[in-house]
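User: Just a sanity check before I run the rest of the batch. Below are the structure tokens for the first item. I only need the designed sequence back.
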């Protein structure tokens, strides 16, 4: 049953516990006893004494080593087929940006071949004595998004705007089929985070700021992935699903990824746990623990939440899997040594580095020493085997011989793309429409501009082929379409004219300009912001809108983003403004909505409604039901073609950002927009677009310092002059940082020193740079240190700080090996610079 479009407060009832989606005065507050906070979830999965007896018998005949192997989940880049044969891991995964043979363009046959080899190695008992089948888990979060040619659906934030659980179930079912074509058993979805601060880099992975939609969607997507419990549950057309991340990841302070959630226990349930009520009620078999903390305690180490609440009070009988080395963040733990997580209730360790081997060995030792009880290990393995038996892994053919395996016509099929196009059309939210500019006549002279217009990677966002969604070309999306593709096809079929120019240049004055702009792709903490002002300090897209408007051309803005943003200035400069979110591979569907039919009638009206409140300033964050709730546009807002426009052109453009100048982060876990990492060797240049890059005398690779891939290892071999730098196409103005006595700061560790200068520099264009030899300041002792240089020193060397193209560079002619972590430009420092310019 489709939910009402009115988004009325507390419009759904949560079975026997409290009002779903209630906030503010409507919120239930008369719950006193703990057992009333956390309900026992009825899944409808019948008890199976015969299966439980079979599990108990298997367990009794397993060695400790075999049991621990079931609890270890390594990543395909870190193990071989022979490792699987030797250890018999219970599961394995491919992380974002990991592919069979390390080939981004691996074919479906390549994926199947790896799945088959791993499976056969797991049931080969010649080395480990175990014939328990392994299972492969993958992050298929908006379609089978790691595989070239797959159907990519809108990210969750767009799906939330559709408010259509029936559609979500279809999307999940299509995703399950495309995943099974490649021989994979298990999907790390759905994400059921209720996002309370849009500055969080994973905002687009959430359906809403309010639990109302999240609960219904969680049930729908689990049903679509796994099948209904009373129908085709975990059949040959279904995969195992994972409800994640337990618990409270969307409610951290300041929207800090992997940060601290300080909600009360009642709020934790009312707001953040509703996706689990829905998803577990639909029979989800696995739950992923969250990186975040709850009131200071890391969830991966919380026995109360993982064991007492989830497995005890809520009655969850599947297994809990960790997130990417999440166990290593528990105080006292490392990636390779963490008894605390098992004792807290973690059943499967996701350990996607070479730390899997010491972790395996340490867990065995810790059970033998009594640090981990044998009963806890037996409980974990019982849960793992239970899920495998329910999924039929002991009875199904091997991955290459399953019914859907190898049927590549299913991947990106017309049927699945039709579902995705429906989702795109229903997800669009019309925020502004002056003088009923939309829908447009298709036979007009249309100018299409903006960097997002013909960019399928940008419109698809993060978790798209690569982890961050970066480094992709339109050719990486066979069968997909850009937003421009749809506009061009629609207009030309109607006899109109299309001009396309990213910068808005035109030969003949158009009747209307469609400008497609917005956020560049990002994932997880790499997308964290300190405020929601769009293009803060570098408003190139606003300049484009104003240029067109000043030319007397009506402007339609199509805004690509993973969250609502403070875009008052861009709204003022637009005659019509559409939030397109991250529509995925079917960008052409947008033209179905913004253009009329050739007879002048409406083709598809806008249906999308905001499932996130649109901000009225860049620093405040408001959610439906908050005290003094006053967003620019409220939860549930969305114009149709029958509605009058409500936004004028005089919205305040004063940012209200505090007078304190925030640090400008250049690199933290990832390179921050608008910069990219560039390698230079001699006169040759190369951009780094994946986890590794090499060019003659220099190479760079990602590695884990504190969290996943948060540092870069740089190796210069000394064969010729080489450099690594951050570069942007447009200059940044750093003058305000100089005025506040700012510094360039860098975390660095020397892995191998050389008898040659190591130059730290900054560039402002051709023959415009400044640099300092830091070879004497860095310590060659494999210790991390922070180096700082006063910005005024670069100014003294002639760097024009009003137009900096490269705010950071390392260059040398020697054989240096260094690692870098956070890079930033800071203001108002309190300590003297470590690199002197005197």
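Assistant: Here's the designed sequence for the first item:
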């Amino acid at each position: 049953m489709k939910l009402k479009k009115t988004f009325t407060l507390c419009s759904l009832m949560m079975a026997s516990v409290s009002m779903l989606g209630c906030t503010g005065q409507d919120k239930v507050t008369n719950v006193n006893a703990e057992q009333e906070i956390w309900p026992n979830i009825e899944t409808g999965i019948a008890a199976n004494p015969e299966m439980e007896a079979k599990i108990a018998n298997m367990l009794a005949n397993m060695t400790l080593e075999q049991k621990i192997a079931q609890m270890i989940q390594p990543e395909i880049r870190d193990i071989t087929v022979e490792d699987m044969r030797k250890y018999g891991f219970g599961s394995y995964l491919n992380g974002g940006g990991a592919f069979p043979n390390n080939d981004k363009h691996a074919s479906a046959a390549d994926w199947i071949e790896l799945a088959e080899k791993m499976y056969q190695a797991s049931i080969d008992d010649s080395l480990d004595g175990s014939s328990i089948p392994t299972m492969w888990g993958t992050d298929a979060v908006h379609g089978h998004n790691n595989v070239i040619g797959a159907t990519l659906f809108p990210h969750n934030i767009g799906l939330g705007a559709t408010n259509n659980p029936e559609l979500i179930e279809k999307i999940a079912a299509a995703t399950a089929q495309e995943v099974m074509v490649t021989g994979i058993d298990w999907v790390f979805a759905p994400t059921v985070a209720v996002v309370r601060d849009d500055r969080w880099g994973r905002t687009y992975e959430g359906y809403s700021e309010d639990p109302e939609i999240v609960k219904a969607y969680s049930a729908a997507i689990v049903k679509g992935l796994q099948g209904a419990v009373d129908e085709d549950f975990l059949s040959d057309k279904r995969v195992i699903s994972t409800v994640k991340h337990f618990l409270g990841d969307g409610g951290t302070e300041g929207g800090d990824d992997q940060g601290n959630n300080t909600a009360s226990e009642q709020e934790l349930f009312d707001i953040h746990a509703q996706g689990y009520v829905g998803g577990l009620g639909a029979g989800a078999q696995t739950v992923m623990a969250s990186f975040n903390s709850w009131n200071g305690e890391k969830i991966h180490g919380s026995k109360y939440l993982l064991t007492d609440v989830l497995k005890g009070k809520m009655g969850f009988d599947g297994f809990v899997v960790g997130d990417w080395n999440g166990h290593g963040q528990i105080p006292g733990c490392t990636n390779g040594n963490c008894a605390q997580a098992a004792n807290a209730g973690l059943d499967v360790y996701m350990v996607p580095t070479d730390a899997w081997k010491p972790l395996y060995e340490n867990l065995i030792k810790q059970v033998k020493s009594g640090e981990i009880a044998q009963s806890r290990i037996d409980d974990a393995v019982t849960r793992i085997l239970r899920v495998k038996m329910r999924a039929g892994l002991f009875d199904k053919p091997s991955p290459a011989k399953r019914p859907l395996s190898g049927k590549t016509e299913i991947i990106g099929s017309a049927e699945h793309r039709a579902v995705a196009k429906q989702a795109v059309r229903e997800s669009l939210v019309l925020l502004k429409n002056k003088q009923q500019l939309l829908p447009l006549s298709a036979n007009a002279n249309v100018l299409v501009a903006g960097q997002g217009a013909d960019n399928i990677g940008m419109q698809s966002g993060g978790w798209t082929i690569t982890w961050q969604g970066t480094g992709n070309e339109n050719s990486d999306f066979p069968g997909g379409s850009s937003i421009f593709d749809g506009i061009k096809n629609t207009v030309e079929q109607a006899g109109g004219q299309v001009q396309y120019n990213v910068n808005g240049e035109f030969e003949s004055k158009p009747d209307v300009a469609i400008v497609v702009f917005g956020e560049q792709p990002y994932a997880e903490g790499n997308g964290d912001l300190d405020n929601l002002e769009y293009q803060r300090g570098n408003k190139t897209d606003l300049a484009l809108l104003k240029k067109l408007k000043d030319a007397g051309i009506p402007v339609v803005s199509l805004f690509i983003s993973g969250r609502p943003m403070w875009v008052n200035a861009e709204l003022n400069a637009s005659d019509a403004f559409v939030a397109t979110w991250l529509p995925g591979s079917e960008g052409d569907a947008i033209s179905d909505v913004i253009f009329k039919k050739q007879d002048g009638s409406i083709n598809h009206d806008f249906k999308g409604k905001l499932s996130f409140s649109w901000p009225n300033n860049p620093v405040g964050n408001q959610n439906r039901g908050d005290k003094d709730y006053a967003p620019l546009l409220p939860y549930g807002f969305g114009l149709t073609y029958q509605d009058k426009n409500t936004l004028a052109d005089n919205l305040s453009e004063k940012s209200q950002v505090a007078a304190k100048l925030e640090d400008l982060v250049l690199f933290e876990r990832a390179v921050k927009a608008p910069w990219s990492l560039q390698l230079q060797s001699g006169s040759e240049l190369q951009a780094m677009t994946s986890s590794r890059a090499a060019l003659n005398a220099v190479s760079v690779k990602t590695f884990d310092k504190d969290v996943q891939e948060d540092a870069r290892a740089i190796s210069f071999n000394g064969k010729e002059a080489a450099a690594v730098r951050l570069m942007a196409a447009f200059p940044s103005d750093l003058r305000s940082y100089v005025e506040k006595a700012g510094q360039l700061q860098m975390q660095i560790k020397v892995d191998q020193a050389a008898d040659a200068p190591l130059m730290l520099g900054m560039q402002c264009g051709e023959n415009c740079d400044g640099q300092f030899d830091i070879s004497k300041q860095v310590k060659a002792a494999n210790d991390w240190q922070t180096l700082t240089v006063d910005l005024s020193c670069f100014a003294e060397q002639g760097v024009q700080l009003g137009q900096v193209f490269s705010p950071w560079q390392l260059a040398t002619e020697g054989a240096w090996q260094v690692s870098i972590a956070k890079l930033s430009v800071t203001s108002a420092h309190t300590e003297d610079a470590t690199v002197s310019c005197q």
